Amino acid sequence: MYKFILLLLVLSLDATACGDKTKEFHPFAIEETFDEEVQDNLKSFRILSPIHKGESFLSGIMAEVRNEFLVYLDIHEDYEYEGEYYYSYLTVADKYLNNVRITLYYDTTTKDRSVMSFCGNSKMYMLTELAEIAPAPPAPPSAQRNSHQE
Hints:
Layout: H1 2-18, E1 28-32, E2 42-50, E3 52-53, E4 56-57, E5 60-65, E6 69-73, E7 76-78, E8 85-93, E9 101-105, E10 122-126, H2 127-132, H3 141-147
Antiparallel strand pairs: 1-2, 2-8, 3-4, 5-6, 5-9, 7-8, 9-10
């Protein structure tokens, strides 16, 4: 009897901690060009990640090339595209471009990231894969303009 109750408890915690993993989900990356002088062998990308995945919210983004580097990226709310996205920037040398792995972590149940869940809700992409995904449509100019006044 105790084993049955323990099993029910474990199953119910798993179901409430991780949320719905089947909702529509479309991160993407855009190669950026800057007016300032950037070294020829570097490429810069703006990575856009949905703010939430089901009932979980984005808690962090990691970029890595195995045995070379591992970096946690800063995230900021984006207003240039329809939908709710966070953006991050990453600049990498050409020689690493095909090996950069981006991991999106959705381990919080609130947008302000104050409550963490421990279900290992993450999704891994190659940077080149994200760059091939069509971006979301642009937000209306009024939404873009209003966002910068906040």
